[in-house]
Design a protein that fits this description.
The complex is a heterotrimer of chains A (263), B (300) and C (381). Chain A is an all-alpha fold and 263 residues long. Chain A has eleven helices and no strands. The two termini of chain A are 43 Å apart. Chain C has two domains: 229 residues, P-loop containing nucleotide triphosphate hydrolases (Rossmann fold, 3-Layer(aba) Sandwich); 124 residues, Nucleic acid-binding proteins (OB fold (Dihydrolipoamide Acetyltransferase, E2P), Beta Barrel). Classes of the chains: A mainly alpha (263), B mainly alpha (300), C alpha+beta (381).
């Protein structure tokens, strides 16, 4: 195999791979501007479906609820996940460490039906009314493991002598944490927050189990509509969500790039 | 704050959170799986209450039984759903590995300034709604969908293919949705690999394709393990993909649990299914967790 | 592997024999990376059984040169020949050349034994031959007991030996060593230098070593090529490079030197007088021909400088420079004096031949520096 041939293979793998990843999304976006009611027949350009969702009160309420849950659960997950990452990297030995590391990583792969059902049963047996807070707690529990992994991968490359230098120069442990440790791991903490935020935005299964009347999330609304059939309105709301996420991700990456350049 | 108090806070806050919201609930699920369904609120018996006192609890504990497990093990439908889930997860993971490895490999060998952009490009679809991405495939795969129109238009087929509502559609959806979870861990290990090892192999007379099998593949084994378990475990319990893309004959256990819970309101049977699913997956989950912990130690 | 007897090092000089066929030839080789030129129109010959050093600061193109020989880079222009054969188009895995990598590049998932056997297995050697040759290689580098270990279970020095054994076990015509001792501590490095030399002589192989460490090059090499910005500054035996550097760059890069800029004020055959800031200096034996008025530099080594108190007399015929001691560096075996002379700082090194705790000179003291005319070098480039 010559290097040209292997380069051609690489290019093919990337082209096909990204085509597979992006084509369905592109098609979805294109058909959101379809004037026709039929999702597969092009009936001319139109933005009527965007106007339709704007008037869909239920959808708008669900979107707002989803954003609130995502923000709150991501905040909890970031705190819990960052502390978990610190515990796992800083303290090599404490009682129940093996169980602890299992508890941190397992929610990442645990099928959501299991997590969802078990949390629901917990809330029922504690007699807690289901709604905004139960969904938030469920999402934070599910996403904090992701935050921990992201922060931990930053912490393992962290040069501990920086903290020792700060302590040597007279900083208290608290000052060391706020002035040295946190600023250095901040990009990973922010990345963890954003990851937790989008995972929460995206979640259907946990929300379905742990939500109550009046706190239906957007994925639940979309799901119930999708099961009834494919409509261009769903394409439109999907396009809006894709646009929002894309802008958010690009803004975040520009911000981290700028802060990296400033250092 | 003293060093000890700091240490205690850092460990205890996440520990208690996860114990309360992740560990304790499993005990409740286990107890629920031994209860019986009832037309009541909550829809099961027995319900333990504080007012019962020790004697009451003991009496109620005798009502618990393994009947639900007997029902599940004795019913072909449940057993088939378990087997189908494991089969789809295994085949899906294998396809993901075959598709994902060349992509990750090519990403790791791309010029350094391109790599962050490529990683971003893999993650970006994952940041858009999972539900929407599965939904997009309905429009593509259904009989009057885009794929059939394209194939008919090209004259490759005479009648529309029935892909939607089959196991094939479920596999397409699984591969599509989980591809980033396979590519990213593979990329992480491949990117970290020391390239001079390949040069050394070549220098010692090893042609590039052989160097791939002798050096690259064995060294990327941790990434392969991580990627495969990161895909296999959640796919086994997948609900949305079989529901939207599968037909009435593609039963997966996650969807069965979902139906038992939401449609049949049979919480005890749903719990028994969850316990069995957990028993099946506990091995893979522990392998994944150990791999993850080792990876983090190695990064130090 | 019984090598033919090699003549003693003093007599070994194939580069001076017109009939000798070089093993390696770089013929007008240029290598560009984008807009940058790493190696520029370079021509060089290396002979069989040489221990040849490519010496220069990082980024001078020495590693690129070696990588072109191993086949990891392709020249942009020019030819690379091995035993008369043009290597163009030959991928690395078919070249009869082996390399010891700077990072050692030991395969982390294979034992020491498997690492060493790798190259032989690639050649499709029979199993018992592989076993015998691996055992022999392990003996050669004194690692018999560690065959089953993984690379991460070895010390730095042991890894270096495994890398060496792995590259040598294939009996290459030519062994390339890329900064082979860079990761070792100083004492181990010095020991290993002599081991490498002994090994090279015993096996009768040709070694090309890339290094930025001048002591390493001086100790081990039959000849040194000093590189600067992709070009050869000078090629020669270690004494030639040290005592007769061709350029200011080579003079400054190898060892310590005093270098004074000036203008040629008198020319009498190879005797050249230069007017400098420290007075007129007469070079007895100038290699390059110069004209009166030309800008040149005069250089001399600190250890070829005598230093005496300001009042003492100096024997005739030497250049004498007066100054004040600024600083004294005591190094045990010798003492280095930094002497201020009309805005310049010159160095004089004195061997501490006698056992004495007293310092003969103090800082701030007025001194005279004396240099013999045949110790002075005239540098035009």
């Amino acid at each position: 195999m010559t290097s040209q041939r292997s380069r051609a293979l690489d290019a093919t793998a990337l082209t096909l791979g990204f085509a597979f990843l992006y084509l369905p999304i592109v098609i979805l976006v294109i058909f959101s501007f379809n004037a026709s009611q039929l999702v597969t027949v092009w009936g001319g350009f139109s933005t009527r479906w965007y106007a339709a969702i704007w008037q869909n009160r239920q959808l708008m309420d669900a979107a707002w609820m989803t954003l609130k849950v995502a923000a709150a659960s991501a905040a909890f997950a970031t705190v819990v996940g960052t502390l978990a990452a610190l515990a796992l990297t800083r303290y090599a030995r404490f009682r129940g460490r093996t169980l602890f590391s299992g508890l941190v990583y397992a929610p990442i792969v645990m099928p959501e039906v299991i997590t969802g059902l078990s949390l629901l049963l917990l809330f029922v047996s504690l007699g807690i009314d289901r709604g905004f807070w139960t969904v938030t707690v469920a999402h934070a529990t599910f996403t904090c493991g992701f935050v921990a992994v992201v922060v931990q991968s930053r912490l393992v490359t962290f040069d501990r002598s920086l903290e020792e230098a700060a302590a040597d120069l007279g900083a208290t442990p608290a000052q060391v944490f706020w002035r040295i440790t946190l600023p250095i791991i901040a990009p990973a903490v922010v990345a963890g927050f954003l990851l937790a935020f989008t995972l929460s935005l995206d979640d259907l299964v946990l929300a379905s189990f742990t939500t109550g009347p009046g706190s239906t999330t957007l994925p639940m609304r979309i799901y119930s509509q999708v099961r009834l059939g494919v409509t261009p309105e769903i394409n439109a709301i999907s396009t809006l969500m894709i646009a929002a996420v894309t802008v958010l991700v690009i803004a975040a990456s520009l911000a981290t790039k700028r802060s990296a350049a400033a250092h | 704050m003293s060093e000890r108090a700091t240490r205690r806070t850092i460990i205890l806050v996440p520990y208690l959170w996860l114990a309360l919201f992740f560990l304790v609930p499993f005990a409740i699920v286990a107890k629920m799986s031994l209860s019986q369904v009832a037309t009541a609120i909550p829809p099961y018996v027995p319900v333990f209450g504080l007012a019962d006192g020790p004697a009451g609890w003991f009496a109620k504990a005798r009502e618990l039984s393994l009947d639900n497990y007997g029902v599940i093990v004795g019913d072909r439908l449940y057993v088939d759903a378990f087997l189908a889930s494991l089969r789809i997860a295994a085949i899906g993971t294998a396809i993901l590995l075959v598709i994902g490895y060349p992509i990750a490999h090519a990403m790791a060998r791309a010029p350094e300034r391109w790599r962050p952009i490529l990683v971003m490009a893999v993650i970006l679809p994952f940041w858009t709604s999972f539900l929407i991405r599965v939904y997009a495939w309905i429009g593509i795969l259904k009989p009057e969908g885009l794929l059939n129109e394209l194939l008919l238009g090209l004259g490759l087929i005479g009648t529309p293919l029935q892909i939607a509502n089959t196991e094939t559609a479920v596999l397409i959806g699984v591969v599509y949705s989980y591809l980033p979870f396979m590519v990213l861990p593979l990329y992480a290990t491949l990117e970290r690999m020391d390239r001079t090892l390949l040069e050394a192999a070549q220098d010692l007379g090893c042609p590039p394709w052989k160097a791939f099998w002798r050096i690259t593949l064995p060294l990327s084994l941790p990434g392969i393990v991580a990627g495969c378990f990161l895909c296999f475990i959640p796919i086994t319990g997948e609900v949305v993909i079989p529901d939207l893309l599968g037909g009435s004959d593609t039963l997966m256990i996650g969807k069965t649990l979902w139906t038992e819970f939401f449609s049949n309101r049979d919480w005890p049977v749903a719990s028994a299914v969850a316990v069995l699913l957990l028993v099946i997956l506990v091995g893979p989950i522990m392998v994944y967790q150990r791999q993850q912990a080792r990876q983090m130690e190695a990064g130090r | 592997m019984e090598p033919p007897e090699r003549p003693a090092r003093g007599a070994f000089a194939p580069w001076d024999e017109p009939a000798a066929q070089p093993l390696v030839v770089f013929d007008g080789v240029t290598k560009r990376f984008g807009a940058e030129t790493a190696v520029s129109d370079l021509t060089l010959a290396v002979y069989e059984r040489e221990f040849f050093a490519l010496l220069g600061p990082s980024g001078c193109g020495k590693s690129t040169l070696m990588r072109m020989l191993a086949g990891f880079e392709t020249p942009s222009a020019g030819r690379v020949l091995l035993a008369g054969q043009d290597l163009a188009g030959l991928p690395p895995h078919v070249r009869p050349v082996n390399m010891m990598f700077q990072s050692y590049a030991l395969f982390p998932h294979m034992s020491v034994e498997k690492n060493i056997a790798f190259g032989l297995e690639m050649d499709g050697r029979p199993r018992d031959e592989v076993g015998a040759r691996v055992a022999e290689a392990l003996r050669m580098v004194k690692l018999e007991g560690l065959a089953g270990r993984r690379p991460h279970q070895l010390s730095g020095g042991q890894r270096q030996r495994v890398a060496l054994a792995r590259a040598l076990v294939k009996r290459p015509k030519l062994l390339l060593l890329d900064e082979p001792l860079g990761a070792l501590d100083r004492k181990l490095r010095e020991e290993t230098q002599f081991e490498l030399m002994a090994l090279q002589e015993r096996l009768g192989l040709t070694f090309i070593i890339v290094t930025h460490d001048q002591d390493e090059a001086m100790t081990m090499a039959t000849r040194i090529a000093v590189m600067d910005k992709g070009r050869l500054a000078q090629v020669g035996t270690p004494p030639v490079i040290y005592e007769a550097p061709a350029t200011r760059h080579v003079a400054g890069f190898i060892g310590e030197i005093n270098l004074v800029e000036g203008t040629v004020s008198g020319c009498d055959g190879r005797r050249v007088t230069v007017a400098t800031a420290v007075g007129d200096l007469t070079v007895a034996d100038a290699v390059d021909s110069v004209a009166v008025g030309q800008m040149v530099a005069v250089a001399w080594r600190p250890e070829k400088t005598r230093i005496v108190r300001g009042g003492e007399a100096i024997s005739n015929g030497r250049a004498v420079i007066s100054g004040t001691v600024h600083d004294i560096g005591y190094l045990g075996g010798r003492t280095t004096y930094h002497v201020d002379v009309s805005g310049l700082r010159l160095k004089a090194a004195v061997a501490n031949a006698a056992r004495s705790i007293e310092r003969p000179l103090g800082t701030g003291e007025a001194v005279k520096l004396a240099v013999a005319p045949d110790a002075l070098l005239l540098l035009v480039r």
